[in-house]
């Protein structure tokens, strides 16, 4: 990776600037030089919190383990965290293999999305990337069968999606299970991303699948081009608030991609600008070499604006995963998510508000044969709830 100066999107603090420099520098002499210059100014406690937040400590450990310029306490923390992560990833890989074998025996096609397969594919080893759960995609018509299978393995369902008129199929994209004894979380997807948005059918993804040999029984994962789109959309949806997702983009962008297939997938999903944001950020912050279509995408005006907007999440170590999310952050994130949508996606998103929500059924319970009435009643039920909330707020 290049050791050129980091383009300044905003006023990144010195710990963040050092982290970015280390992530884009492979040469040990450059690493020692960067650490030597910064060591007197860096708050190493802040630096540890930063790399923990961004989930890049195993990748960074692999680069820093031979450097004498890393303070002893920081190196001890990195070593301990690296070892713990290695144990966690081996644990996940073993469970992934068992799930893959048993679902294969049931005739259920499954695509593993991240976790161990991603660590092996992009980093060359399980220990170099963090993961806290297993994410896998199954055909929606096999979802109930997979849920029963997981419950039979001792998993407990964490979230029960409330729905009316089957809107869960396109509003949501996964359901979460956890195993109380193994300490493993599994997210079962029937879509790659929340709706409403266009994305490839499972059969299309299955036809482009690749085998991962990270386990003795090969498991299936996304094709490279599908993987780039999936990682770009996933990272963008979370504001690139963790650098780990950008390091993923850096690694996959260095692979040999099929430009014609990539172009067709981006056109079909109306998401070229989202991929553009991802590779723009990776190029600017991590020194990812870009050429051909990826370079064109990164240079577009919209990609630049969207990349600039991600500064908000990186500058302030924003955490979108712990509730409650502060109100200013929540407002900014909602606006940013809308800006990320293509025009067709924005139209579908706005139209989706006219489709009944489960709150409508709670506000006015109706017999199932009359659920169609929620369509004309929805504006009235929405206004009724808003008026009730406003009245309670004034009363409080």
CATH class of the largest domain: Alpha Beta
Q: What does the average pLDDT come to?
A: 91
Helix proportion range: 55-70%
Q: List the strand order in the largest sheet.
A: 1-2-5-4-3
- What percent of residues are in strands? 5-15%
Give the name of the CATH architecture of the largest domain. 2-Layer Sandwich
Could you say which structural class the secondary elements and strand pairing correspond to? alpha+beta
Number of helices: 20
Structural domains: how many: 3
Rounded to the nearest angstrom, the distance between the terminal CA atoms is: 57 Å
SSE sequence, one letter per element: HHHHHEHEHEHEEHEEHHHHHHHHHHH
Here the CATH topology of the largest domain equals Beta Polymerase, domain 2
Biggest sheet layout: 5 strands, mixed
Number of strands: 7
Radius of gyration using CA atoms only: 23 Å
Counting copies of identical and different chains, the oligomeric state is single chain
Envelope shape: globular
> Which ranges are low-confidence, i.e. pLDDT below 50, for 5 or more consecutive residues?
1-8
Keywords: Transferase
Organism: Paenibacillus antri
Pfam families: NTP_transf_5
GO molecular function: transferase activity
Question: How does this model look, in words?
Answer:
- There is one protein chain.
- By secondary structure, the chain is of the alpha+beta class.
- It folds into three domains: about 90-220, Beta Polymerase, domain 2, CATH 3.30.460.40; about 225-335, no CATH class; about 355-395.
- It is about 55% helix and about 5% strand.
- It has 20 helices and seven strands.
- The protein has helices at about 15-25, 30-40, 45-55, 55-65, 70-105, 115-125, 145-150, 170, 200-205, 225-235, 245-255, 260-270, 270-285, 290-300, 300-310, 310-315, 325-340, 345-350, 360-365, 375-395, and strands spanning about 110, 135, 155, 175-180, 185-190, 210, 220.
- The strands form two sheets. It has a five-stranded mixed β-sheet. A two-stranded antiparallel ribbon has the order 6-7.
- Helix 1 (about 15-25) packs antiparallel against helix 2.
- It is globular, with a radius of gyration of 23 Å.
- The termini are far apart.
- The model is unreliable at about 1-10 (pLDDT under 50).
- This is Nucleotidyltransferase family protein.
- GO terms for molecular function: transferase activity.
- It holds the Pfam family NTP_transf_5.
- Keywords: Transferase.
- InterPro entries: NTP_transf_5 (IPR039498).
């Amino acid at each position: 990776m290049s050791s050129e100066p980091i383009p300044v999107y905003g006023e990144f603090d010195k710990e963040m600037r050092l982290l970015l420099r280390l992530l884009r520098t492979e040469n040990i002499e450059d690493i020692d030089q960067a650490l030597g210059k910064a060591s007197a100014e860096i708050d190493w406690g802040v630096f540890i919190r930063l790399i923990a937040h961004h989930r890049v400590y195993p990748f960074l450990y692999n680069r820093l383990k031979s450097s004498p310029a890393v303070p002893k306490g920081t190196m001890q923390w990195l070593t301990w965290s690296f070892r713990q992560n290695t144990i966690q990833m081996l644990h996940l890989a073993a469970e992934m293999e068992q799930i893959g074998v048993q679902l294969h025996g049931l005739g259920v096609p499954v695509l593993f999305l991240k976790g161990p397969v991603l660590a092996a594919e992009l980093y060359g080893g399980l220990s170099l990337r963090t993961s806290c759960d297993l994410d896998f995609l199954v055909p929606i018509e096999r979802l109930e069968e997979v849920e029963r299978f997981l419950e039979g393995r001792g998993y407990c369902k964490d979230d029960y999606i409330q729905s009316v008129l089957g809107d869960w199929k396109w509003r949501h994209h996964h359901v979460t299970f956890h195993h109380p004894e193994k300490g493993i979380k599994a997210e079962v997807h029937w879509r790659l991303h929340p709706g409403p948005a266009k994305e490839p059918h499972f059969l299309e993804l299955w036809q482009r699948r690749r085998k991962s040999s990270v386990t003795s029984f090969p498991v299936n994962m996304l094709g490279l081009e599908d993987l780039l789109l999936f990682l770009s959309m996933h990272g963008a949806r979370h504001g690139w608030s963790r650098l780990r997702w950008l390091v993923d983009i850096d690694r996959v962008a260095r692979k040999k991609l099929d430009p014609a297939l990539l172009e067709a997938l981006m056109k079909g999903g109306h998401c070229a600008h989202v991929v553009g944001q991802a590779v723009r950020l990776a190029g600017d912050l991590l020194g990812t070499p870009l050429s051909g279509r990826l370079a064109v995408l990164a240079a577009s005006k919209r990609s630049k604006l969207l990349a600039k907007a991600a500064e908000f999440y990186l500058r302030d170590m924003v955490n979108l995963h712990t509730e409650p999310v502060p109100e200013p952050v929540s407002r900014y994130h909602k606006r940013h998510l809308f800006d990320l949508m293509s025009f067709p996606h924005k139209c579908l998103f706005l139209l989706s508000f006219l489709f009944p929500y489960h709150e409508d059924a709670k506000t006015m319970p109706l017999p199932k044969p009359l659920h169609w009435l929620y369509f004309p009643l929805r504006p009235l039920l929405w206004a009724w709830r808003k008026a009730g909330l406003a009245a309670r707020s004034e009363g409080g």
